[in-house]
Write the structure tokens for this entry.
Amino acid sequence: MQGLNRYRQLDDAQILQTLTRLRDRIAERFAESGLARVADELLVVGGETANLVAYLRRPLWPVRCAVGLVIGAIAVVLVAMAASVRMPSGIDGLAIFVQATESAINDLIFLGAAIFFLVTLENRLKRRKALAALHQLRSVAHIVDMHQLTKDPERLTSPQADTASSPVRALTPSELGRYLDYCSELLSVISKMAVLHVQHFNDPVTLSAVNEIEALANGLSGKIWQKITLLDRFAVPSRRVPSVGGGSSERVRET
């Protein structure tokens, strides 16, 4: 059963191992590139994510004990107050009792709000840390997108000359394809790292933030794969195949 559970949930150690290999692959091909430094930083973030996931998974016993003591003290005070109440007699006493009841109801509402605040304190403490970490992952995803922004495959076949402000394009078509692949893989790892935050932490606010990062990573990766598709179209040579009957020929891609 334990072996089956390995394939039903993400493993932060396996994600870090995959990210380490991806970092090494990027460094081996593009040692001096900014993308390699982004991969290095993402690996540091991955270690922080693993520690945070462990924090989100375990209960905060000091917080729970403190909350329990406070709620217990409130319950004791309420029981003591209820035991000291004496039913008044007469018309005037009934009016006083009604006023006291209204006041007690208002106090109970405020006490209920206070108890709710205390009960959800642990969840809110974890949520704050999780949202801060997810904000960092979102920023890294945008940084990856900035690195692929100027990697335009159409410029490989463009007859227009570069201007003084044009970015340096020193990559060959094969290198450009590999660079874009690495960008897409980094975005995929970022998405998986985001999901780790809610795997053992059931919080709707955090889950919404994770969904936003997944949508962001998928959207950015989709733009990258559009470029890869264009690059494959430019890189694959074409050949002419005679049509049936010896007429005009058509161009088809070699597979």
